[in-house]
Amino acid sequence: MNTLTMQRPDDWHVHLRDGSALAAVAKFTAARFGRAIVMPNLEPAITSTALAAAYRERILAALPAMNEPAGRRFEPLMTLYLTDTLAAQEIDRAKASGFVHGVKLYPAGATTHSDAGVTDIRHVYPTLARMEELGMPLLVHGETPGPEIDVFDREAHFIDAVLAPLLERFRRLKVVFEHVTTARAVDFVRAARGGVAATITPQHLLHNRNAIFSGGIRPHYYCLPILKREADRQALLDAATSGNPRFFLGTDSAPHERAAKESACGCAGMFTAHAAIELYAEAFEQAGRLDRLEGFAAHFGADFYGLARHDEIITLTKEPWVPPVSYDFGAGALVPYRGGESVAWRLEPAARA
Ligand code: NCD
Ligand code: ZN
To answer: What is the number of domains present in the chain?
Structure first.
């Protein structure tokens, strides 16, 4: 199969940043996806509907007019950052806005810009109860932080300590287990009650943890949750290509300036937005299941969030191309995943009106 045509996909988990970084990266997501769930971990975090509204305007302003058939417009789907003090009434405002589509739970200290996150899940029970009532999804970074927990066991620990009891307590709360990375998480999501789904990143489909240490330490393969074992990668690939609508696309593309990655204490996050859907095509092709990419990338997420699927289509061609070794990123540089190396699939430029 040399071309692949499918309904326009969406990215159900992306970091677009702000300011000059936003201007540098948003166009990559908008060129591929119709919509994206935009993470709220700015500094300061997006903790209210008013802040989300202003951020949404900045995202739209950062996008050049799209050189495509009339009417196509990238739609940022905004999220709120759950803190210990986010009031239940704020959920009402968020729901009424029409543009806030989820509330993100970062356990405090779990990842980049998570210091304002939830210190104890019990603190947010009233807010979660309101989300359950209003049908506002909870998006979880499913890792337990803390020096006593092995970095490779954080996801499993979170399932047992937080997620499983939470799903029992709030039986109707819609939950997305973001960027699952282990066979354990895949099994958990498959067997969970209704209203539970998971996103999967391209890097966790394409790599195991050896990538971080191949020939030396490779900071551009460091993200959170960290890459796992080969058996985990296989389980993720099985889940993504299974046709099970609980698993859908979420890149977790998370750009950082080069110096912040190539450092004695480098930031977590891989930038994949410049080749996102193309990379998923590689992974699905490896599994011999290109026919299942459309469901994963364009249908299941929209269905879960209660949004319409897109009308227009995109076309991918099996034609290798080489991303640059760096992109401009405000004042600095951004090292993209696979920069200077070949990507097997190419996105066709959109047909002109
Ligand atoms: C994300 C970031 O840089 O904002 N980093 C990452 O490794 N994925 C935060 C996150 O989603 O964990
Ligand atoms: Zn993320």
So the answer is: 1
